[in-house]
């Protein structure tokens, strides 16, 4: 049997990124946290934590992290079943690490978390933002119990729920359109020179649109802008064109002072909720809240 206090200390170090912050969340000294992690590593005969900044789980630690999170979730569910009063993030409340892409976070995912918290008093969340094409890695690394992803194939030990489709439109300001696409000439020659807005190095949506329209691999000038709301403002300001989800364009692009580069040519991204295959009431409640919120906000799959 593994010592629960040692498991909790290990999980806190990885979650908080340092021994000092882990000690603060556990209300113990840093030396106590260090001792517990050291004893756990000696018990298993493997280094579990990279003492870096921030601290990270080793390959062995990633496997143990999933177990530690499952133990904590099972304990919270048991206490809830026994009628113990929930404490936010405390002994009787579940602390759930979840992954989500930035566009879902700012459009519909908060409603899902709020509904889950209402149904599961005492629950707190640790939200990790990752591109939908890469967020399943968070599950493989044991860093989250579930994530919104574009990956339909189940990660080992997980189950998949189809959520619907997030629709993106290529938009820019009318002034930008007139300057870079005179006469509405949205073609390869003009797209190769028009500045493009891209969220980060993992964001491939703009290039998906380019290939779909031109059948070519273009490399236009790029503004890197890791903010969904900033993305819209940059497009409105005429800095460039970019792919914006319908959830940020209520009333259509024109209602936000924007125009579509190619009306009727959106890029649809199917989204899925992947989570541990675990019959835990808290996880099932979170999954149901996410499915309901997605059903109201996304296009039908």
Descriptive notes:
The protein is α/β, with parallel strands linked by helices. It folds into two domains: 1-85, Winged helix-like DNA-binding domain superfamily/Winged helix DNA-binding domain (Arc Repressor Mutant, subunit A, Orthogonal Bundle), CATH 1.10.10.10; 94-301, D-Maltodextrin-Binding Protein, domain 2 (3-Layer(aba) Sandwich). The chain has eleven helices and eleven strands. The strands form three sheets. Strands 3, 4, 5, 6, 9, 10 and 11 form a seven-stranded mixed sheet that branches. It is elongated and about 70 Å long. The protein starts with a helix and ends with a helix. The model is unreliable at 88-92 (pLDDT under 50).
Q: How would you describe this structure in keywords?
A:
301 residues; alpha/beta; Arc Repressor Mutant, subunit A; D-Maltodextrin-Binding Protein, domain 2; 2 domains; 11 helices; 43% helix; 19% strand; elongated
Encode the helix/strand succession as letters: HHHEEHEHEHEEHHEHEHEEEH
C-alpha-based Rg, rounded = 22 Å
Tally the beta strands.
Answer: 11
CA-CA gap between termini: 44 Å
CATH topology of the largest domain: D-Maltodextrin-Binding Protein, domain 2
Q: If helices are DSSP runs of H or I spanning 4 or more residues, what is the number of helices?
A: 11
Q: Tell me, rounded to a whole number, the average pLDDT.
A: 92
Domains (count): 2
Q: Briefly, what CATH class of the largest domain?
A: Alpha Beta
Could you give a short account of the major beta sheet?
7 strands, mixed
Helix content: 40-55%
Q: Structural class, from helix and strand content?
A: alpha/beta
Quickly give the CATH architecture of the largest domain: 3-Layer(aba) Sandwich
Dominant shape: elongated
Low-confidence stretches: 88-92
Per DSSP, what share of the residues sits in E-state strands of 2 or more residues?
Answer: 15-25%
């Amino acid at each position: 049997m593994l010592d629960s206090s040692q498991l909790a200390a290990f999980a806190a170090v990885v979650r908080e990124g340092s021994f000092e912050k882990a000690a603060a969340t556990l209300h113990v000294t840093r030396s106590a946290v260090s001792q517990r992690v050291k004893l756990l590593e000696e018990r298993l005969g493997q280094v579990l934590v990279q003492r870096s900044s921030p601290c990270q789980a080793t390959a062995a630690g990633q496997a143990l992290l999933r177990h530690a999170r499952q133990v904590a979730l099972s304990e919270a569910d048991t206490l809830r079943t026994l009628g113990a009063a929930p404490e936010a993030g405390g002994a009787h409340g579940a602390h759930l690490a979840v992954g989500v892409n930035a566009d879902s976070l700012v459009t519909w995912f908060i409603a899902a978390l709020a509904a889950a918290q209402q149904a599961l008093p005492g629950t707190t969340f640790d939200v990790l933002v990752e591109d939908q094409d890469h967020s399943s890695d968070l599950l493989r690394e044991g860093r989250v119990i579930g994530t919104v992803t574009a990956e339909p194939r189940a990660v080992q030990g997980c189950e998949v729920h189809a959520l619907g489709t997030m629709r993106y439109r290529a938009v820019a300001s009318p002034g930008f359109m007139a300057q870079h696409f005179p006469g509405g000439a949205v073609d390869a020659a003009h797209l190769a020179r028009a500045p493009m807005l891209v969220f980060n190095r993992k964001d491939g949506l703009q290039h998906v649109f380019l290939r779909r329209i031109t059948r070519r691999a273009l490399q236009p000038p790029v503004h890197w802008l890791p903010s969904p709301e900033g993305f819209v403002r940059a497009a409105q300001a005429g800095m460039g064109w970019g792919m914006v989800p319908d959830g940020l364009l209520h009333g259509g692009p024109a209602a936000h002072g924007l125009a579509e580069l190619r009306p009727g040519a959106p890029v649809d991204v199917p989204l899925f909720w992947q989570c541990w295959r675990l019959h835990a009431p808290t996880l099932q409640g979170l999954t149901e809240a996410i499915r309901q919120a997605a059903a109201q906000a996304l296009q039908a799959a």
